[in-house]
Design goal:
By secondary structure, this protein is α+β, with helices and mostly antiparallel strands. It has 3 helices and 8 strands, in the order αββαββββββα. The chain has a 4-stranded mixed β-sheet, covered by helices on one side. A hairpin with a 5-residue loop joins strand 1 and strand 2 (27-33).
């Protein structure tokens, strides 16, 4: 796996991975990957991340059904951030955020105050098994 050696993993063996929706270009979320998560993502074609809070691999959509199909994996110029181009499945429009929103980036700073800029598409209480 020579591609793994090109990556600048942090002290914990992780790299930030940004998921961007194919077509719309919307930035959906940021999560972490370790080597195993990246290998599984490459092998399966679906996003696999590493959950720092649970200290384990996290197959996106394993509990919610909102899977990310990966079309493209890019590494930035410093080799310390990855960008995944994905199709978000499980709901139309796709839900990437655990709050039931399309994107995790729904808070916008206006006049010094964070304001919610996107509505909940699906109640999170009904999403998780």
């Amino acid at each position: 796996m020579n591609y793994l050696n090109s990556i600048q993993w942090d002290a914990n063996g992780l790299i930030p991975a940004i998921a961007q929706e194919q077509g719309s270009g919307d930035v959906l979320m940021m999560a972490w990957m370790n080597q195993e998560a990246l290998q599984l993502t490459v092998e399966t074609g679906r996003a696999v991340y590493f959950s720092r809070s649970r200290n384990k691999l996290w197959f996106k959509g394993e509990a919610s059904g909102h899977v990310q199909i990966v079309h493209d994996i890019r590494l930035d110029c410093d080799a310390d951030v990855m960008l995944l181009t994905v199709t978000q499945t499980g709901h139309t429009p796709g839900i990437a955020c655990h709050t039931g929103r399309h994107s995790c980036f729904f808070n916008i700073l206006k006049d010094g105050v964070w304001q919610v800029s996107a509505s909940v598409l699906k109640d999170p209480k009904t999403m998780y098994k």
